[in-house]
């Protein structure tokens, strides 16, 4: 494929930013697994761009801890740093509990459009639930981000999205298992009901338990788990296929 620049150059992300987003999406979708190697030339030929924006994009991903330079093979996907993931989960818990407390104090809680939208997605019958898929993983991320954004505090929302981005690659693995999807629907609905009823302590307890369960799953991740997740559709079947789509 070739990346296309936005028609309105004033609104368009730079070519390096487009390459960055494309490669990061591939990493998050497990097109490449921790330890896999690739070269700048792979990305250059696949995306139809010059080497400079590719190098800039990969350097940004390296600064964020997703890839690193490999002397023999060009670039390598970084191994998972489970200690760092656990620390980020702890930060996430702090931010989301603070958000719940603020939400329960809102005078206009019952008319909060973001909460109403979330309720329509998650408070559904089992027959209406989506199966284990990338779509559910993305909806889960949006549930937690929008829960924080519903407070109206933009800085809190921005900090939370930054943390979400850093753990997204492991959080999505939860949604390769149908039992985790079913639990997520039920738990999200219960959290929303407690918030809308202004039962702050109950909502925070439910939310903490929900996130801790996800955090516990992270430590169970193995290479076999990652390979299985890639095969059943979280990402593409292979690096070469991802590059050409």
Describe the structure.
It is a single chain. The protein is mainly α. It folds into two domains: 65 residues, Winged helix-like DNA-binding domain superfamily/Winged helix DNA-binding domain (Arc Repressor Mutant, subunit A, Orthogonal Bundle); 144 residues, Four Helix Bundle (Hemerythrin (Met), subunit A), CATH 1.20.120.530. It is 63% helix and 4% strand. Strands 1-3-2 form a three-stranded antiparallel sheet. β2 and β3 form a beta hairpin. α4 crosses α6 and α4 runs antiparallel to α9. The radius of gyration is 19 Å and the shape is elongated. The C terminus is likely disordered.
Secondary-structure topology with pairs:
Elements: H1 15-28, E1 37-38, H2 40-47, H3 51-63, E2 67-70, E3 74-77, H4 82-104, H5 113-122, H6 134-149, H7 154-171, H8 178-196, H9 200-218, H10 223-231, H11 239-244
Antiparallel strand pairs: 1-3, 2-3
Helix pairs in contact: 1-3, 2-3, 4-6, 4-7, 4-9, 5-8, 6-7, 8-9
Domain HTH gntR-type: 13-80
GO molecular function: DNA binding; DNA-binding transcription factor activity
Protein name: GntR family transcriptional regulator
Based on Cα principal axes, name the global outline: elongated
Radius of gyration: 19 Å
Going by CATH, what is the homologous superfamily of the largest domain? GntR ligand-binding domain-like
Largest beta-sheet details = 3 strands, antiparallel
Query: In whole angstroms, how far apart are the ends?
Result: 6 Å
Strands side by side in the biggest sheet: 1-3-2
CATH fold title of the largest domain: Four Helix Bundle (Hemerythrin (Met), subunit A)
